[in-house]
Amino acid sequence: MSALEVLIVVAIWALILLPGAITAAKGHIALFAAGWIVSGLVWPISAWRLAKPNSPWAHRFYEHDKLDRSRGRHPDIDPAAPSRAGLAAAIGFGLLFAAFVGGLIAGFASR
Fold first, then answer.
1. How far apart are CA 9 and CA 14, in angstroms?
2. Residue 101, exposed/middle/buried by CB under 10 A (0-12, 13-18, 19+)?
3. How many domains does the chain have?
4. pLDDT of residue 36
5. What does the angle CA 32 – CA 86 – CA 9 come to, to the nearest 5 degrees?
6. CA-CA distance, 24 to 68, in Å (whole number)?
7. Interacting residues of 41 by C-beta distance below 8 A, sequence separation 6+
8. What is the mean pLDDT, run by run of 10 residues, along the chain of 111 residues?
9. What is the torsion angle, in degrees rounded to the nearest 10, for the CA atoms of residue 78, residue 79, residue 82 and residue 86?
10. Three-class secondary structure of residue 86 per DSSP
11. Burial code of 54-81, b = ≥16 C-beta within 10 A, e = fewer?
């Protein structure tokens, strides 16, 4: 496999997984799980959605006006409550990493 082919594969994986990471960071756990089922097709759409007020994304990137919009959309979520977004991302991307390593091992074993 040439360096260009490796670069193309890495770029494609990044284009698929980056919206997944954003979706998980915004606290959309159900959409993150749905993305795994449908090969990431949900993630580009869900990455554009407003983050939940207790998500790491909202805490890091949202100013007062956007955080107020998020609280208005999700009035039942306490912004100070811990988010499960990090756990979901760790499980999902951990499974992906395990599959990637398994594929590498299987590829090298078949040579």
1. 9
2. exposed
3. 1
4. 83
5. 60
6. 20
7. 35
8. 81 85 88 86 91 90 93 88 77 79 77 68
9. 130
10. helix
11. bbbbbeeebeeeebeebbeebeebeeee
Distance CA(56)–CA(86), nearest Å, equals 8
The range of the structural domain enclosing residue 48 comes to 3-109
CA dihedral angle for residue 35, residue 41, residue 44, residue 47, rounded to 10 degrees: -20
CA distance 53 to 51: 6
Alpha-carbon distance values, 98 to 1, 25, 53, 94, 106 (Å)? 22, 21, 31, 6, 12
How many helices and strands in the chain, by DSSP H and E?
6, 0
